[in-house]
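sorry for the late reply, my laptop died twice this morning and i had to redo everyting from scratch. anyway the thing you sent over, i finally got around to it. pasting the sequence first so we're on the same page, its 133 residues, then the predicted structure underneath. double check i copied it right bc i was rushing
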Amino acid sequence: MEYTLTGLLPTALLIDLPEIDVQHEEIFRRIEMLKTSSFGNGPASLDEFHSLLDYLEWHFASEERVARQLGVDFADHAKVHDDNLRTLRKALAAVHDGSRDVHSFLRYTEYWFERHIIDEDKPFAARLRERAT
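ok and here's the structure:
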């Protein structure tokens, strides 16, 4: 399967696994779209925010699938993903009830994901490449 990047993802955030890099880029594209649509008071609907979290869940499952295919232990990484999804769902619920600002939610999501790629996905990708050779 061919995976094409659009150039949205900075080189520092590429992990050299095309399937996963394209998914990472899509996550950042969605965050940017939500920032744009939320400029000012906020979005009319939070459906796209829920869609982002659903996509994140699907992406995390993709990483787990790749790890499983190559026999790489994924338990610790999966826990980080589960904790993040739980935190983001709680934060989005706070946006729903008005106790959290939508822009704070997006800033947190973007920062968490950048840090996660650098600190955890890059080493994970290196383990996958080692296993594949």
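The two ends are 19 Å apart (CA to CA).
thats about all i looked at so far, will dig more tmrw
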